[in-house]
Amino acid sequence: MTLDRRNFIKLVGGASSLALAGCATQGPAVSSGSAAEIMPKGSARRVVVVGGGYGGTIAAKYIRMMDPSIEVVLVERNDHFVSCPFSNLYIGGILPDLSSLTIKYDKLIANHGIKFVQAEVTAIDPAAHTVVTSKGTLKYDRLVISPGIDFRTEEIEGYNAQTPEIMPHAWKAGPQTVLLRKQLEAMKDGGTVVLAVPLSPFRCPPGPYERTSMIARYLKQHKPKSKIIVVDANPDIASKGPLFKKGWDMHYKGIIDYRKASKVTAINAANKSVLIEGLDEVKGDVVNLIPPQRAANIAVQAGLVGDDKKWCPIVADTFESTKHKDIHVIGDASIAGAMPKSGYSANSEAKVCATNIVNLMNGRPVTPLSGINTCYSYITDDEAISVAAVYASKDGKIIAVPNSGGVSPADWSMVKTEATFAKSWLRNILTEMSS
Amino acid sequence: MKQRWSSWALTAGALTISATALAADPGTAMLANACAGCHGTHGGSAGLTMPSLAAQSKTAIVEAMKKFKSGERPSSIMGRLAKGYTDQQIDQLGEFFSKQKLHFTHQQVDMAKAKKGADLQEANCSRCHLDDGKDGKDDTPVMASQWLPYLQMQMELYQSGKRKMPEKMAEKVKPLSKEDLDALLHFYASVNK
Ligand SMILES: Cc1cc2nc3c(=O)[nH]c(=O)nc-3n(C[C@H](O)[C@H](O)[C@H](O)COP(=O)(O)OP(=O)(O)OC[C@H]3O[C@@H](n4cnc5c(N)ncnc54)[C@H](O)[C@@H]3O)c2cc1C
User: Fold this and answer.
1) Is A423:B47 a contact under the CB 8 Å cutoff?
2) CA distance to partner chain B, nearest, from residue A15 (Å)
3) Which letter does DSSP use for residue A208 in this model?
4) What pTM value is reported for the model?
5) What is d(CA A164, CA A25) in angstroms, rounded to the nearest whole number?
6) Distance between CA atoms of residues A295 and A301, nearest Å
7) N or C, where is chain A less crowded by C-beta within 10 Å?
8) How far apart are CA B72 and CA A387, in angstroms?
C-alpha cells in the first residue's frame, strides 16, 4: 500500500508527538540532582569516569593499574551492565537469557581500588570541574565520559515516549532486547518483521546486519512461513556487505527482503507501519525500529558535541574534548576518526585515553595513539565473519594503518573458526571489564 | 572443533586473572594493551580458543607475529592485524608479554590423560618445552595452562599441514598416536601452579 505523505502524517498525529523529541527513551528521567558534595576530594589527584560500559570500566581500571596514586571514581546509573555484543544471539534464540552478557562491578572495584557511585549524572560544570549526580556533586581534576548513545527521535515523525514499547529499538541491551525477543515469539507464523536501519554513523556498523541474520535464523527454525524486511537508510549494507549477502544467500533465501536507500521518516504506531521517504509504507507484525543516533544526552547537555550537534570532537591521542578542557570523551559518543563505534574500539580508546591521562597528570609527554578494532558477526549458530584493523594517529587524525586490517576471507573458509573466536573474544573482553 | 555453548558462558568466580603488570614504558604498554581485548589483561586469556601471551618467550611472540604477517602461519584475524605493526613494534610487543607473569587457568581436564601426558612430556618434549611447559626456549612457546580448546585447535592445524611444524618437533610428534597427543595436551592444560 502506498500512502500520500500528508495523509500519513495526519494519520500518525503529526507534530504533536514531537514534543518529547530529544528525551532519553531508556533510563530514568533526568532530575536536577543534589548539590551536596559526595566523597569530598582530598589531596589525591582525582579522575571521575562517567559510564560503566565498554569504555568507562576499562578507563577506570587502566588508570588505576598505571598509577595507583590517582583516585578514580566511576559513576554509573545501573548496578550492572548488559553487553550489546552477543545480544543479537539472544534475540535469534541461540542464547537462552542475558545472564552470560551481564556483568557486575564488585570485582573490578575491589581488585583496582576504584570508588563506585551508582547515580545518574545530570550535569557537568566544566569551569568548576564538578559533576552533578542524582546523589550529589563530585569534584574532578580530569573527567572521562563514556556514556554511549541516545537517539535522534525528533527526525522520525510520530515517534514518542511510547514508541520503543511498541517498536523496540533494542539498541541498548536489557529490557528492550527482551521485549523484541518476546514480540518475535508472540508473532504468528507467516508474519512479517520489519527492521529499520538508520543512516551511518551509528553504534556498531555491522550490528543491524548481524541482527538480520539472527532474526532470519529464528524465523527459519520456528516460523518458516515468515519473513524479515530490512529497510536500510544507507546506500547499501554499511559493513562487511559482500560477506553478509553471501551468508544470507546461503542460509536465508526467501526469508530476508533487503531494501537499501530506504530511510524511515515517520511511523504509524497504531498500524505498526513505517513510512519510507519516497512515500512507501511498510507494515510489520513486529517492528524493530533503530532510530538515528547521537552522543548520549549527558554529552549533549554538557556542550561536548560539535557543530553537527551529534557527536563529540576530541584530540586524537588524548581523547580530550576540543570543547572543554580536562574532559575526555571515549566510546560511541566521540568522533574517533577511522575507529568505528564498537565495543572493541571503546575498550581500545579507553586504554589510549588512560595512558595519556596518566602521562599528563605526571607531566610526561603524550604517547601517540595505537589502537585496534575487531568485530565478529554471527550469520548462523556456528558461522561468523569478522572485520579488524589497527589504528594510529597521523597529523592529529586517527587513521587505519595502511595495508593492515580487512574482513574475513571471501571463500567462507574461516567462518566456523571465527565463530569460536567470537565466543573467546566476548569472554575475554567481559572479563577485562569485570575483574 | 566444536565448542559447546554451555562451556563458554562467563560465570562469576570461574575465572581468575593472575597476570600482573611489570613496569613498561607507556608506548610499549599502549601497543600491548590494545591486544588485551582478545588476549586478556596483560595477556592472560579467558577465552577458550585465544592463547595467553603472558610469559611467552619474546622470540616466540616475535616469530609468531612475523609469520602471521607474511601469511606463513595460517590465521583469520591475526594476519590482518600483524600487518599493522612494524618490526620494531612487534619487538616491543614481544618484550611486553614476555615480562608478564604466567597466567594460570583452572580448567576441566581428563586427569588420566593428563597423567599419561606427563610421562610423554618428560620423555619427548621436555628438552624444548621446559619445566612442565611453563617455560619456553627461543621460539618454543609456553604450553602450561593454555586452554585445552586452543591447544587442540593448534594441534589440528599442525596435523593437517596448515601450520608447519619445526623439524625437531616433527621428529617427536610423528611417532606419537592420536591418543598420545591428546594426552599431552591434557597434561599441558592441567599445569596450573
Ligand atoms: C546489537 C548490537 C550488537 C553489537 N555487537 C558488537 C560486537 O559484536 N562487537 C563490538 O565491538 N561492539 C558491538 N556493539 C557496539 C557496542 O555495544 C558499543 O560500541 C559499546 O557499548 C560502546 O561503549 P560505550 O562505553 O561508548 O557505551 P556503553 O557500553 O553503552 O556504556 C555507556 C554506559 O554509560 C551509562 N550512562 C550513560 N549516561 C549516563 C548518565 N547520565 N549517568 C550515569 N550513567 C550513564 C550507561 O548506563 C552505560 O552503562 C554492538 C551494539 C549493538 C547495539
Assistant:
1) yes
2) 45
3) H
4) 0.93
5) 7
6) 10
7) N
8) 21
